[in-house]
């Protein structure tokens, strides 16, 4: 659960129209710029998902000028892009949980200085959903707020138990012990009464 959004980062440029820091022209900023210290500080996933891209973004890929880029496909089908990284420490096809390390901040590609450009695209294809205008992206801060509202609250690093696992610890395991000893089962009426599903 994201307790404080972008904790540890300085938000240096919001989503929306702005004068581009390198081109000096009016351009739509399709993500947010975040800065951590030191300049090559570690970056962690804001959402869990699968890596669809984890290398230098080349022209035509959908990540031209983005430098070293990691893209995570979340479970709602949106693509989370981490651009301008100095290094990437993950590989395509791997899965990550919220808070997993993905690499380090940098200034690769077209960038005015070390920062993380974080962008969320609506599509993952073609070319990773690249669009020239603002219609292909969403505002990241609001997206994350909505995203975590829709997710069950789970402690960092802890997976929720599935129904099967819950049954396993409460019913199935103790019963298995009895099952091996069928004759003793009848004498343990109390246990069977509690576990009517399995004891006859
Ligand atoms: Zn940016």
Automatic annotation (TrEMBL):
CDD domains: M23_peptidase. Residues 27-126 form the M23ase beta-sheet core domain. One of its GO terms (molecular function) is hydrolase activity. InterPro entries: Cell_wall_metabolism_enzyme (IPR050570), Dup_hybrid_motif (IPR011055), M23ase_b-sheet_dom (IPR016047). The keyword Hydrolase applies. The keyword Protein biosynthesis does not apply. It comes from the Bacteria. Keywords: Hydrolase. This is Murein DD-endopeptidase MepM/ murein hydrolase activator NlpD.
